[in-house]
């Protein structure tokens, strides 16, 4: 356990100092800061535009950070030979793998938390409210995004044990896109009788294998308070558990491959 | 952990005082035999039998990076593992560290199988040009590596920083460390668990002469402390100065191994003379098969193995009216051995035995 915590702590410290991640984070923060000015572009309600835009910025920025941060975690350690100084100590490969993942997710969480705080400040200033009842629910979106991004990071970690970083970047990005959008496409296929059964079967297979990232998108009720999720707490807990189970499966696959990887 | 002690008495080098007196007066220009624990020679630190690592290339062809090597490194000695680039040195070390799996063969460290976690508590590794997390200070690096052993001993970390002469720089980030300082912090982290066996991969590579000497002195200090050191290096002069035994690996096979004093037997003698006729040079060329004879305007240089009768060469030169200018004996250097071992197609040889 000591080894996992130490490796996670070091990975976190390295991650928050990586310039490329800081730049992505800074771009996200800049967009969040200028968000109140965007209401002039839309005739829709100020609140709808602001919440929709800022949550979109947090999601996109976090996804980029999650992928860029994770695809290089293991390859960098191998290239710089740091991994040898660690694995020759009484550290198991799975401990190294899990430690790296936990460190990355912690760094991701800290950056997302900072963006969430900024989102709430921007919203409070623009709406002129300090009412916690209005402000606190805004954190639900980023909270679910955090589970989504942790899952995305697990996909990248798992693949990093198998493929080169550049390929991993595009693969993980592709899986995220498909996993986010495919839920809607799948439902359309299932409901539409005109769709060929083979297409339906393939879409069913894709849905069974790929994580459904769309599950974590809870923007709609936040953007439009009239829309509510039935049994909200259960939905959040269930979705979070779905994410955690998927993360564990992906990490186990990654560890199995990494255990046999010649570094 | 179980270590078998043998009672073989190992003769002490004449210029080395017993360690039990807490003194070690030695000149590191010369090679010294390993004398841990009052002169008693201990068991095998590393034992390798027929170790092979085969890779399948993209073309489908199988290639042996390491090809059935046999090695034995005794406890308390400094063992040099030499070879040209791509010969299989690092692959061998990685197999011993259980970072990669051998295709076949056997290897043990202090009698333990390589996948036994006990081994990782008593060994250490300093890779070639490693990267240490640059945001960390020297002290933080040691704390990090110490935590991997569940060691929470600030005094130990500070003591090691003093030992490698980095105590005053302990709060500087690694990014500000010079190459030599990074190598020293590497050595400090490799000593955290007080290892019985250290693997050092190019420990002095790319360092300036001062840093070079500092690292070399530290390695000699490790031997004084009874540690076994396995060095892979291209710095042959260092290896010659500090190693007790060496092995030269070539294309995955051991091409030579043994005690340095045995391997380096057979020096050469260079006889230089003036006023010598070219016919005398031709005579030497035809009679000295192992000799290198050069003649230019009456000046003759004959370079022969020291086993050749020098008197007959001198007599021949004198009787022809030549004048002897100098007779210089040249000790065989490790560099000579290395070059002749890796550059020709000699089969495996075992000089001085495996241990």
Indicate the radius of gyration of chain A in whole angstroms. 20 Å
* Number of extended strands of chain A: 0
Structural class of chain B: alpha/beta
The multimeric state of the shown protein is heterodimer
Instruction: Name the chain pair with the biggest interface and residue counts per chain.
Output: A-B, 22 and 32 residues
How many helical elements of chain B?
A: 11
Count of all domains of chain A: 1
Shape of chain B: elongated
Number of helices of chain A: 12
Strand sequence of the main sheet of chain B, in spatial order?
6-7-8-3-9-10
- Uncertain spans of chain B: 1-41, 348-355
**What level of helicity do the residues of chain A show?**
over 70%
Order of helices and strands of chain B: EEEHEEHEHHHEHEHEEHEHEEHEH
Given as residue ranges, the uncertain stretches of chain A (5+ residues, pLDDT < 50) are none
Helix-strand string of chain A: HHHHHHHHHHHH
How many beta strands in the DSSP annotation of chain B?
14
Major sheet of chain A: none
Q: Whole-number average pLDDT of chain B?
A: 84
User: What is the distance, rounded to the nearest whole angstrom, between the alpha carbons of the first and last residues of chain B?
Assistant: 23 Å
Tell me the fraction of residues in β-strands of chain A, as a range.
Answer: under 5%
């Amino acid at each position: 356990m000591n080894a996992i915590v130490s490796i996670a702590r070091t990975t976190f410290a390295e991650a928050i100092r990586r310039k490329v991640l800081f730049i992505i984070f800074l771009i996200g923060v800049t967009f969040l800061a200028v968000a109140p000015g965007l209401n002039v572009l839309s005739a829709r309600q100020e609140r709808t535009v602001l919440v929709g835009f800022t949550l979109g910025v947090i999601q996109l920025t976090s996804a980029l950070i999650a992928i860029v941060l994770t695809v290089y975690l293991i390859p960098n350690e191998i290239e710089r030979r740091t991994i040898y100084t660690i694995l020759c100590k009484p550290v198991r490969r799975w401990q190294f793998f899990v430690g790296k993942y936990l460190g990355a997710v912690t760094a991701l969480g800290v950056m997302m938390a900072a963006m969430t705080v900024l989102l709430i400040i921007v919203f409070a200033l623009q709406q002129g409210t300090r009412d916690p009842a209005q402000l606190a629910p805004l954190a639900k979106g980023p909270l679910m995004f955090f589970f989504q991004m942790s899952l995305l990071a697990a996909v990248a970690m798992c693949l990093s044990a198998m493929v080169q970083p550049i390929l991993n970047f595009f693969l993980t990005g592709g899986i995220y896109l498909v996993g986010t959008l495919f839920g809607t496409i799948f439902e359309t296929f299932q409901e539409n009788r005109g769709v060929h059964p083979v297409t339906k079967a393939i879409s069913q297979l894709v849905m069974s294998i790929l994580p459904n990232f769309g599950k974590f998108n809870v923007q709609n009720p936040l953007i439009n308070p009239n829309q509510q999720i039935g049994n909200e707490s259960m939905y959040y807990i269930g979705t979070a558990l779905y994410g955690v189970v998927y993360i564990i499966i992906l990490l186990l696959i990654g560890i199995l491959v990494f255990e046999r990887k010649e570094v | 952990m179980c270590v078998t002690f043998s009672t073989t008495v190992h003769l002490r080098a004449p210029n080395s005082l017993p360690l039990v007196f807490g003194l070690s007066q030695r000149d590191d220009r010369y090679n010294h035999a390993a004398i841990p624990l009052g002169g008693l020679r201990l068991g095998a630190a590393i034992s390798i039998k027929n170790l092979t690592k085969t890779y399948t290339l993209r073309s489908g062809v199988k290639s042996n990076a390491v090809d059935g090597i046999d090695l034995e490194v005794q406890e308390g000695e400094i063992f040099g593992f030499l070879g040209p680039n791509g010969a299989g040195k690092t692959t061998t070390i990685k197999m011993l560290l259980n970072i990669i799996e051998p295709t076949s063969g056997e290897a043990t460290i202090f009698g333990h199988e390589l996948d036994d976690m006990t081994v990782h508590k008593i060994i250490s590794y300093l890779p070639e040009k490693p990267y240490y997390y640059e945001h960390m200070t020297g002290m933080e690096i040691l704390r990090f590596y110490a935590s991997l052993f569940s060691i929470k001993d600030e005094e130990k970390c500070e003591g090691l920083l003093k030992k490698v002469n980095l105590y005053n720089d302990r709060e500087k980030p690694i990014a500000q460390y010079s190459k030599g300082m990074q190598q020293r912090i590497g050595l400090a982290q490799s000593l955290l668990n007080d290892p019985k066996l250290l693997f050092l991969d190019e420990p002095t590579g790319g360092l300036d002469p001062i840093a070079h000497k500092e690292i070399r002195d530290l390695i000699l200090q490790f031997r004084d402390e009874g540690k076994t050191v396995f060095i892979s290096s291209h710095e042959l002069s260092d290896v010659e100065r500090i190693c007790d035994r060496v092995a030269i690996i070539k294309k995955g096979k051991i091409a030579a191994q043994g005690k340095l004093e045995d391997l380096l037997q057979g020096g050469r003698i260079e006889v230089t003379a003036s006023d010598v006729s070219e016919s005398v040079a031709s005579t030497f060329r035809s009679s000295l098969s192992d000799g290198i004879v050069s003649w230019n305007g009456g000046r003759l240089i004959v370079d022969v193995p020291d086993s050749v009768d020098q008197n007959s060469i001198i007599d021949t030169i004198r009787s022809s009216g030549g004048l002897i200018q100098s007779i210089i004996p040249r000790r065989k250097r490790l560099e000579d051995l290395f070059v002749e071992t890796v550059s020709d197609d000699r089969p495996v040889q075992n000089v001085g035995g495996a241990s």
